[in-house]
Design goal:
The chain has 239 residues and is mainly alpha-helical. The protein is 55% helix and 5% strand. The strands form two sheets. Strands 1-2 form a two-stranded antiparallel sheet. A two-stranded antiparallel ribbon has the order 3-4.
Length: 239
């Protein structure tokens, strides 16, 4: 493994190549060295240093037992256009902040076309596999109901129903600077009902009881629900 790292370091600009003839790496010979006469100088392909650098980093990261076989698999994957073993991902993790950006780009629409959503997803460097998972779980087609998609995307971040609805509330809230996140109770009702239905482990009667309690005992005259109303109230058990 040390030899691979050493080989990559030899190709840094300004470094004299010790394993290759001076004429191959473009190095100037020392006064006491003889240089074979060649009709044409052989140049290092410009992409070779970076290629070896990425290969070396992947090898160090993976620590393969059979380096030769691993190297063969690595370059075969590159040849086939696949992600090679040990390569670092260029995708970022889905976060509530990125969900807020997505929501702002949807710009209040109830329906968004899958191709447009995929483009937004790509621009944020989010993993396409996660997009496919959300689409498959929601059984979405070409036209996607944004609130349903958002709820499922939040569930991949929040995991539990309470945390999922907390993230959804924070994403949808317009009170970013004037107080705690809050959304209309009707929106919360839609999201909770849908998430519980997809989850499949919470009975419809339990969902109805919780919604009835929140509406009658928690929601004020403004018709809005705050995050604390369903995360800090011991009488509200969403799961």
């Amino acid at each position: 493994m040390h030899r691979i790292h050493h080989l990559a370091s030899l190709l840094r600009p300004g470094t004299r190549c010790q394993l290759l003839p001076d004429s191959f790496c473009g190095c100037e010979p020392q006064p006491n060295e003889s240089m074979p006469q060649m009709d044409e100088q052989i140049l290092i392909p410009p992409e070779l240093p970076d290629l070896l650098k990425q290969f070396t980093k992947a090898a160090l990261r993976t620590q393969p037992q059979d380096l030769i076989q691993w190297a063969a698999d690595y370059f075969e994957a590159l040849t086939n256009g696949d992600i090679p073993p040990g390569a670092s991902s260029n995708f970022v993790e889905l976060t509530p902040e990125l969900l807020k950006i997505l929501h702002s780009r949807v710009a209040g629409r109830l329906i968004i076309h899958v191709s447009e959503l995929a483009q937004m997803w790509k621009e944020l460097s989010l993993p396409p596999e996660l997009l496919n998972k959300v689409i498959n779980v929601g059984r979405f087609t070409e036209e996607i109901e944004w609130l349903k998609f958002l709820a499922l995307a939040c569930s991949f971040v929040g995991v539990t129903i309470s945390k999922t609805l907390k993230i959804a509330c924070e994403v949808l809230s317009s009170d970013h600077d004037s107080g705690p996140a809050r959304i209309p109770f009707s929106t919360f009702q839609f999201l909770y009902t849908y998430i519980a239905e997809v989850d499949g482990e919470i009975s419809a009667s339990h969902v109805s009881r919780m919604l009835a309690y929140i509406e009658q005992e928690v929601i004020g005259p403004d018709g809005l629900i705050k995050v604390d109303d369903f995360t800090q109230n011991p009488n509200v058990q969403l799961e």
